[in-house]
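hiii so um. not sure if this is the right channel but i have a protein structure encoded as tokens and i wanna go backwards to a sequence. like what aa goes where. can anyone help
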């Protein structure tokens, strides 16, 4: 990140807050004219600082009232088994994030469900039957305090 100057960071921060911002407004926001701003944006995209653009959907508006964080443990640590588990997890839409972690668990998953019954059914019928899973431990979110705000740019 050392090759990013103050204007690059400002562009990234503005886009992180609003990925649909037109270049004209982006340029105005960061204090550049449109052409140099567009060039910088293209350079930042090509250099890989911007992975993709997307809309952040409201899980509540879409009917997902429950968020669970699930620690998943394996009894056998086999690379092929882990690869199968990861492929299957990536194919399940309601698993919104999956991290291979250190500590007592092997993975931590963030899962959305419509309600507690839906969550329980998903745990029983899908999650516990994934390859390699020998135990799961859930923690349900009571209230979201901070959503994914992006990465720090300082």
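sure thing!! here u go:
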């Amino acid at each position: 990140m050392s090759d990013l100057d103050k204007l690059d960071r400002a562009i990234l921060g503005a886009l992180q807050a609003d990925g649909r911002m037109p270049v004209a407004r982006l340029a105005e926001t960061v204090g550049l004219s449109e052409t140099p701003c567009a060039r910088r944006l293209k350079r930042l995209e090509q250099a890989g600082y911007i992975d993709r653009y997307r809309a952040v959907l409201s899980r509540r508006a879409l009917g997902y009232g429950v968020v669970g964080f699930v620690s998943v443990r394996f009894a056998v640590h086999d690379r092929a088994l882990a690869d199968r588990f990861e492929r299957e997890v990536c194919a399940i839409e309601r698993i919104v994030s999956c991290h291979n972690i250190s500590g007592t668990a092997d993975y931590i998953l963030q899962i959305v469900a419509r309600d507690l019954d839906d969550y329980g059914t998903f745990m029983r019928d899908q999650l516990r039957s994934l390859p390699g899973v020998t135990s799961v431990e859930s923690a349900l979110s009571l209230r979201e305090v901070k959503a994914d705000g992006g990465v720090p740019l300082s």
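oh and The chain has a mean pLDDT of 95.
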